[in-house]
Structure prediction request, 394 residues.
Amino acid sequence: MSTPRKPRTLVTHPPAIELPPGNRPLVAPIYQSVKFETETVDDLLAMLRGEVKGFFYSRGKNPTTRQLELTLAGLQGREDAVVVGSGMAAVSLPLYGLLSAGDHVVSFIESYAPTRQALKGPLTRYGVTHTLLPVGDHAALEAVLASRPVKLVQFESPTNPMLRIADVERLCALCRQYGALSVMDNTFAGFHQYGQYPVDLFVHSLTKYASGHGDVLAGAVIGSAAMVQKLRSESVLIGCTLDPHAAFLVQRGLKTYFVRYQAQCRTAHELSAWLEQQAGVSRVLYPGLASHPQQALAAAQQQEFGTLNCVELAGGLAAATRFAEALELFAMTASLGSVDSLVNPPPFMKPMDLTPEQLAISGITPGMVRLSFGLEDIEDLRADLAQALAVASG
Ligand SMILES: Cc1ncc(COP(=O)(O)O)c(C=O)c1O
Prediction:
C-alpha cells in the first residue's frame, strides 16, 4: 500500500518484516497467529483440499506446533505426532477418537489414576466398557482378549506411582494376536525409550520431561501417519489443540532433554541406592536397583530407569508425612520430570477410586512417598533427605 497508514490502521496492520533469503533466525519464531491468509480464494481452496501445502487456522495446524510434532515423531521413532493441550488430553485423544459405543478396553490397576477415571466416568457414559487388570497378569489379559473383542489396550511402563514394569514385548504380541490396538503412556520412560517395540500409539505428557521446567502443560500422541491423521481430525473437533507459545516452550525444553534426563536419572539411581541403606526406610522402589522385583525386565527394556522412586518409611503414614513435610529442596506438589525435585506425600499416593482388593494389588502402602529428582546438587539433596529422615524418625 503506497498511501501512509493512519494510526488506527497502522496498529492493526503493522509493517511486515521480511527476512532476506539466507538470513534465518537460529531459533524458529513462534507463529503466534490463529489465522494465516492466502492471496486468492483458489489458493485457499487448493490448500484446504490438501493439493498445496500451507496453513489456515491454528486449531488444525500451525508451523510452531508442527515443528514440535515432527521433532517428537523423530525422537520416538514413528511417522507422525499430534500435540495437544495437556498430557491428559493426549491420554484421552485415542480413547475418544478411536472408540465407539460397545467397544471394550483393557487397562491396568497400576495406571495413572486420571486414565482410569476417564474410563470409569465419561467413557462408560458413552457406552465404552473396560476391564482393569494387574499389569503383570498376562494370563488374565489373554483370557479377556480371547473371550471378547477388545479394541484397545492402554498401559504404562514404568507405572505411576509404583514404577511397575510392563512386559511390553509380551503385551504388544498379545494385542497383535487378538487384533487390539496397543496404546502406551510412555511419559515415565521418555521419548528415547520403548520405540523398538511394536506399540501402535505412544502417549506422552510433555508437561514433564519434554518441557522440563514446570512452566507449560502439553501432551502428544505419536504413531503411524494414518492413525495420527485420524486423531488430528478428532483433536480439531474436540478443540484440545496446543497453543503455539506452549509448543515453543516445549521445543526449547527439548534442546536439553537428554542432558537433563540423564543427569536426573543418575541422581535418582544413586540416591535410591543410598536411601535403601538408611535407618527408618523399609523399602525403596527404583527400577534400576537390584532390589526392584522386576529389575531384570526393566534392564532388558530400558537403558535408563527414570528420575523417580517410591520410598516406604518404616514408621508408616505418620513418619512418611513428617518426612515429606520436612524436606526443604523437594517441593511438595504434583507432577514430575522438571528440573526441581518434588515429593508426592502419602495422600497423593493413594488413589481414591481403587477397591481395597485393587489397592492391595497396586502395592501402595500408607507409609509411601514418591520422589522426583531434579537437577540440584546431589550432595544437597542427600543432606536434605538425611535431615528429613531424622525428623521422620523423631
Ligand atoms: C503417566 C502420566 N500420564 C499422563 C499424565 C497427565 O499429564 P498432564 O498433567 O500434562 O495432563 C501424567 C501426569 O502426571 C502422568 O503421570
Q: What stands out?
A: Residues 257-393 form a domain with the Aspartate Aminotransferase, domain 1 fold (CATH 3.90.1150.10).
